[in-house]
User: Fold Major facilitator superfamily (MFS) profile domain-containing protein from Chiloscyllium punctatum.
Amino acid sequence: MCVEKETSDCPLSGSSDEIRSLNGAPSAATSAADTPFSPAEKFRALYRLRPHIAAGVLSFGYVVNYMDRFTVAGVLADIQRHFGVSDSKSGLLPTVFICSFMVATPIFGFLGDRFNRKLILSCGIFFWSAVTLISSFITKPNFWLFLISRGLVGFGEASYSTIAPTIIADMFAKDTRTCMLSFFYFAIPLGSGLGYILGSCVTQASGDWHWALRVDGEWGECTAAEMLPIVLSNALPGLPPHSPSFVFSTLASASVSFATGVLGVWIPLYLFRAEVVQKNIEPCTAEPCSGRDSLIFGAITCVTGFLGLIVGVAATRWYRTKSSRADPLVCAFGMLSSSIFISLIFVFARFNIVGAYMCIFIGETLLFLNWAITADILMYVVIPTRRSTAVALQSFTSHLLGDAGSPYLIGVISDVIRHSKPDLDLWEFLSLGYALMLCPFIIVLGGTFFLATAHFIVQDRNRAHQQVEEMRLVSVKV
Assistant:
């Protein structure tokens, strides 16, 4: 129920000094700006929705961010064929990207706490989109130049991933913040899945994988233009965060990054090789290679990302009424359960590709439970003036220990195993599968870190709340 005050918060309420005739209708003396549904009132109502509009635009930008990352993974077989590179060299593409991204996050975390965040975001998007577009014109002998371009893209994308979630956290609080962060982090599986789909569909339609990067680059430029009209506030600079919950949740996040980095890069190619072994498709001998598995995996990633976030938020809301440690315990359950189904992928892939896809569906849904929850944990154990720095530190550590080296590591292990029988399609498939079996063990380790987070979460949350209250008292006295 809206209660009118001297300055009304009700978008459809009239002014308190409105003059009415005897029959209750507004008199002619009433100002047009003060009548119900007037342009002024409509503008005020729209202004109140500005945080939600800003969150929507930021989420769309994050979708484009992840589309750009995973378009390359969606056409990885074509890139290998085009440049004539092995699994280990292909694994360098995400490694170079993540290493550059990882180095840039502390820089943008520092800048985001001190300078205009809208300008930083827009410049970052323009930069990475332009580099993606230019990289589509790199010729065959220059694989090293393509590697450098992915590093530059990673540097530009770091600006977005570091700053955007802190803006949303500053605009909302409590359950609303959890919901909006869930909406924002849904962009990760949605953008990842659309990246596979975009790469596969554009490549099949044009007959050239380069066009997938060109379409991606244009999307990014349009997103940067949308970002400019949003006015964003800045937080005050603060000190780096320090709490056991932050440390353990960051280590758990690194485990998630390790697993998602590996699965995102190698699973489509692994399933392609599985279909070759099962005689469902022919080996890739000319471009473009079959993009069916990238297309299916992309669609599964979109759906499981949505389901994972919805189930995760619903589970935490329900469990919060029973336990103050609900958030990390739900994350731990998701991780530990996911490891079982990720392991079963490698059992089914040899004989039943449908069974492998079912395991991917369930395993990814459980793995994606924790994305928004982990971000929310960070926001309530770290005071607002340290959030950009905290996100930067968590992102840096997660990528350093996670997906910065995991795709390359899997590629190297696969090549080492395959060299014993290099000419067999079956051994090419099995060698990659053996290398991928490292993932379930890392996922279990991440679940263990979430259990450790649950041990400290209550005291760290109370400490952060107390610090915020002390800051408010100081500001009132001043």
About this structure: The chain has one domain: 50-477. Confidence is low (pLDDT under 50) at residues 1-35, 231-240. The radius of gyration is 25 Å.
